[in-house]
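Hey,

Quick one before I head out. I ran the complex with zinc ion overnight. Inputs first:
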Amino acid sequence: MNTTRASRTSERPKPLSAEIEARMKRQARRDTKPEMALRRELHALGLRYRVDRSPLPGMRTRADIVFGPAKVAVFVDGCFWHSCPQHRTLPKNNQAWWRAKLDANTERDDRVNRQLREAGWLPIHVWEHEDITRAAKRIAREVGDRRAIGLQEQSSS
Ligand SMILES: [Zn+2]
């Protein structure tokens, strides 16, 4: 789960509501349920991948699922941390701090997407609320397409 590790820093303000605290704990946990479910689906579709890797050398952000030969990087994004349009919320306490933090996450996502595209990669973001089966099919299609293109380029050179 792409929960952005910076969120675990000690600068986190208090007090937090119990609800927010619980949500943060849930979301910070690694190998979260949607990510595991997605990996299972992809595996069942015959795809092989690496997990929790930086797609590019020197890139600090890790993708949750990486298809190296096809150059596809998948991020499973938590609705809270990545401000999903359907489920975004702002905690009642310390609103300015939270807004800055969540905006910074969105800006980082944009920056990482740009860097990946510039390097010939395709970033795919899956919201944690998305239908996992559909998301897996979408990923499999993209990976298949890009492999086919790669093979064509190889055979024509
Ligand atoms: Zn959502």
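Confidence is low (pLDDT under 50) at residues 5-10.

Talk tomorrow,
K.
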